Structures are given as C-alpha cells and as structure tokens.
Amino acid sequence: MRAAVLQETGQEKLEVLDDVDAVGFGPGKVRIRVRAAGLCHSDLSAMSGVLPQPAPFVPGHEGAGEITEVGEGVTGLAAGDRVVVCWLPACGACPSCRRGQRQLCLAGFMNAGTANFRRPGGDVFGFAGTGTFAEEVVVDAGCAVPIPDDVPFDIAALIGCGVTTGLGAALNTADLEAGSSVAVIGCGGVGISAVQGARLRGAAEIVAVDPVPARREAALRFGATRAVAPEELADARQQLTGGEGFDHVFEVVGRSATARTAYENTRRGGTLVVVGAGAMDDHLHLNMFELFFDEKRILPSMYGGGDVVRSYERTIALWRAGRVDLAGLITHRVPLTGINDALDQMRTGTALRTCVEI
Predict the structure, then answer these.
(1) Which of 83, 191, 210, 301 has its CA 20 to 30 A from that of 90?
(2) What pTM was computed for the model?
C-alpha cells in the first residue's frame, strides 16, 4: 500500500512509499479505502514538532473514503459505506461526554500513541490516530462517520476538520449576534470557515486579517467586508469601531503573538476566540489588572466547540442549501505523489485547502 511518511520530526519533506501496511484491524475497527484527504496546517505543526506526535508517522487527519471491511462487534457500518474520518471520536461515556462536551473527549487522543501502520522496518503511527495520507487506514469504528451519497469525497474530507473547526468557532463557541463586529486573524481554510460562520450569524463587519494578498482576496469572496494586512488592523479598528475594538476576534494562527494582538483588538467586554493550535511552550502573557478591568472573555474553541457529528450534519445541510461554499475552499489538487507540492502550497499561503486525491 502507498502512503506518505515522515521519518523524523522536523523534516520538511514526506516520503511516498509503497511498502506500508494498514494494521490493527479487529473487533471494533473498520478499514477505510481513502479517496480524498485535505491538508491542514495542523499536519505541518505535527511535522515540525509544534504538536506532539510520535514518529515515524503518516500525516493527514482530514479524509473521506469507503469502508472495505468491518470488524466484529461494529454496528451501524458496513462495507461499501461512504464515510468521513473523524480524528476525535467521542466515547459517549466519559465525564466530558456525559456533560455534553463531546469535543473534549480524550478517548480519541489515546489512538495517537498506537501504531496503525507498519513497514518492513517497524511500526508507523498515524497522525491523531488516523493518517489519511494513505490509500488505506484502519481506525476505531467511531472514527468513521457515514455521509450521504450526494456529498463528494473532497467536500467530506474538509468537513472532517477545518470547516467544522472554523464554522463551529463562530456558531458554537462565540455564539455571535447579528449586527456584531468581527475580526478574523489568519485566513487559511479554517479562518475562511470562521468568516463564513460570522456571515451566517449576520455580523455587520467582518475584517479578515492575513499577510498573504491572495488569502485576503479570497476572504472577501467568502463574506468578509474588509480584508487587511496585519499592519493595517489598527487603522481598520479605528475606522470601524472608533478605536473601541471588535465585538469578537478570532485567532486562527496558533501563536501567542497573534493571540495577544487579538486580545488587544477585542473591545472591553468582547470575546476573543482562540482557534489556532499552538505549541505547549508558547505562552500568552496577560496581566491580572487587564483581565479584571477589561472583562474580555477568552474562549478556546476545540474542534469547533460542539458535538462533532452534529456539526458535520449541520455543515452538510448548510452546504446543500448554498449557505456555505465548501468547493471554493479547494484551490489546488494533487495526487498522493505530489504531497510535497501541497506542503509548499500550505507553507507559502498559496492554497486555502489542497485536496490530495488518493
């Protein structure tokens, strides 16, 4: 089987190898023939070591395909089912799940430490317990969420992470109100999805902030009312809010510097939504007086801040109704053998989302 493998953390290139096997099939598992995968910035973060992931590993956590085999005890799934890969399945029984915070279930994270691929030289892990840059993957049955026949595999792959995360940050976490002012810092696929979520909620002003001109232009197509480079944010804040700051600011980069910028551009009593996944040693500094005096809410948003499967269903309904544009997020397509081109497109900001056709 063919898969793209990172041999050591810190390497910038993947090796596309044809001697990889998807392993671990058995009770409670399913085998999926991957048809499409999306490249998310979290894959780059895992490759660089910003996000912890044992190596060697197969990156990729956005994916969709067909079930080819179902293990003993699996119900509700069958060979031939079209599914989206969910990298954070909820167990339904832990304290987080019982409280209704299924996106905080830790059961899925346990999969990241178990190898689900193997080469002649030894075990290979799958990023976040999945590893969708491969022709096949074996995952827990909870990671395979059925999709309707009218949802193309490339669209489904995006729903598996980036779109759900960005839309959910606006619709679930921020719960922003119509007529509000919004700034989105970082306008890749997740940030653009947050822009679309803000538009859906009726935000009056949506300012997209990104250093890449092409991404700023894209943000305007997806619903932003203004798009600025980072150094222009202060002027936009002054012009649109009289210097007070925005009602809601989304940080979609995952760095303390941009989180601090987001905090400073949030009005007193407003909401900072932290969407980007950052490093464990990158600390955001706030003083106790400003926390008390400004009364700004700081809301982290994990995987869109809501029940993941319900979020998938909502996104599909919005897509069918023409309320969100998912196809437009896919700006580039590559075969699995072109995965390193896709990595370069992500690093340079050339792509919003690259679809890896497998």
Answers:
(1) 191
(2) 0.94
